[in-house]
Design brief:
10 helices, Toll_tir_struct_dom_sf, five-stranded parallel β-sheet, alpha/beta, Rossmann fold
């Protein structure tokens, strides 16, 4: 009888798993300690992308005529080295081909001919909602890439989803110190990383529109 009572009171495995998943979903990556930040870096996930799965925002139409999305010329500014141009063109083609038709700034394509590089880089940062930093060996060696990274951080020093570091073919120990408070996307599978970038940009624009609607109310 005692054995039978213990069996009846034994929690079901599905209930335990449900409780674990519930606790996991309720935890916020933004409130993690240094130890959790270390584990996040080692797993190669981005803070912004993790937030999408943990606390999704309600559907918001970012393409309405009065959307604050149109306050800037571009949705995304891609910061990259010239040697990564082929990969960047694929990323831009992917983002611009989405149903939302994200507007991307690509320096070699969109810069005004004859204009100063510094002016173009600053204008691109100021006129974009989000900045994708494709951090590769070429990026780390390119002074213009680092300059644009510093401009983006000066524009929005807090990690609010606007700066999106993407790490590729670079050891985690070489991750720029300036970005240590921002989690990155580790590009192992290109298609998955492109989708993470798209989701992060989408989330920021939805939050922007949602905040604007609240202020109007």
């Amino acid at each position: 009888a005692g054995w039978f009572r213990r069996l009846l009171h034994k929690p079901k495995s599905s209930s335990v798993e449900s409780l674990k998943s519930s606790n996991s979903a309720s935890s916020s990556p933004s409130s993690s300690s240094s130890s959790s930040a270390k584990s996040s870096r080692s797993s190669g996930t981005s803070l912004a992308t993790s937030s999408i799965s943990l606390s999704p925002v309600s559907a918001v139409d970012i393409s309405t005529s009065d959307s604050p999305r149109w306050d800037k010329s571009y949705d995304v500014c891609i910061c990259h080295s010239e040697e990564d141009m082929e990969l960047v063109e694929e990323l831009v083609s992917y983002l611009e081909g989405q149903p939302e038709s994200f507007r991307c700034f690509l320096q070699l394509r969109d810069a005004v001919a004859g204009s100063a590089v510094v002016t173009e880089l600053c204008d691109a940062v100021q006129n974009s909602h989000c900045w994708v930093m494709l951090i590769t060996p070429g990026f780390l060696q390119d002074p213009w890439c680092r300059y644009q990274m510093h401009q983006a951080l000066a524009e929005a020093p807090m990690a609010n989803g606007r700066t999106i570091p993407v790490l590729k073919d670079v050891d985690r120990k070489d991750y720029p110190r300036e970005l240590w408070n921002i989690y990155y996307i580790y590009m192992a599978l290109k298609e998955k990383s492109f989708r993470q970038i798209r989701d992060t940009v989408m989330r920021y624009l939805q939050e922007l529109c949602k905040s604007s609607t609240k202020r109007m109310e």
